Amino acid sequence: MQRYECALITGATRGIGLAFARELARSGCRLVIVARGEQRLAEVAAELLAQGAVEVVPLVCDLSKEGAAAWLHEECCKRGLNVDLVVNNAGLFAYCDQTALDNERVKAMLQLNVVAPTELSRLFVGDMVGRGRGAIVNISSYAALMAWPGLAMYSGTKAYLDTYTCALAREVRGHGVRVLSVVPAGVATDLYGLPPRLQRVGLRLGVLWSAERVARGSLRALGGSRVRYVPGVLNRVLRPVVRHLPERVISFLRRKTLVFQK
Ligand SMILES: NC(=O)c1ccc[n+]([C@@H]2O[C@H](COP(=O)([O-])OP(=O)(O)OC[C@H]3O[C@@H](n4cnc5c(N)ncnc54)[C@H](OP(=O)(O)O)[C@@H]3O)[C@@H](O)[C@H]2O)c1
Questions:
Q1: What is the pLDDT of residues 141-163, one digit of tens each?
Q2: Ligand 1 center–CA 58 separation, angstroms
Q3: Ligand 1 and 117: CB distance under 6 A
Q4: In 173-210, which residue ranges form alpha helices assigned H by DSSP?
Q5: pTM of the entire structure?
Q6: Catalytic residues
Q7: Is residue 1 part of a domain?
Q8: Most CB contacts within 10 A, which of 24, 29, 115, 216?
Q9: What is the number of structural domains in the chain?
């Protein structure tokens, strides 16, 4: 894995973001960790320092609010932090039909899944191009492949992020800056509200990946030249199948999963 001097990770207090933070802490990196929960940020900061991070800067920030990305970038500049890796990881999930989603949730999802990672990518990639080095990792989702009823917002926002990221990667590859879209399928985290017991079952059956494997694989993939990393050989093989599921199969699965909408 390439060594980074200072990494900024959004949503670094749980799940995939925390796994990235732990992995980078062990490599002796300076870390800027971002989330809304202040107490949890302080606990994670202490843990990361104990694991080898040179310095940990916890920043309380709600990225679903307008102006959050500009504030974060400004804060890093004011503190003299030369961020050379940004992991845009924080994201909001909803399995809910459009007619049942309230405006607040829609706005928060667009802001967190689309606006914040776009603005953070643009702001930091500008600095990186100026320095001739750096990397951006944007966490999309396998759901980006599915125009699934109930996932219109989640799939739509993640498809945008994947396309945006791959195009950005090609724009800046001649400037010494690596940009990578990560497209994980199911990962054992609290994102969907899956109880820990079922997460463990999913891991044992191999239908879920651990957050640690996703983070490690993504950091390894940064060392290559691909613009997109899909964790798991089977997930890579099944991509065209998932993208072109027959309408009858989609209708059947929708009927079976409607009870999980919230
Ligand atoms: N889990 C999966 O199966 C899966 C699959 C594909 C893609 N993904 C994507 O991977 C990313 C991480 O998912 P995860 O499963 O690790 O989620 P998670 O376990 O729910 O963790 C989410 C993290 O983001 C922070 N966060 C949430 N809302 C935020 C906001 N408005 N502003 C700032 N920070 C916020 C949370 O801390 P606070 O609550 O304290 O803010 C927490 O640290 C997401 O973008 C998700 O869409 C996940």
A1: 999 999 999 999 999 999 999 99
A2: 16
A3: no
A4: 196-205
A5: 0.97
A6: 154
A7: no
A8: 24
A9: 1
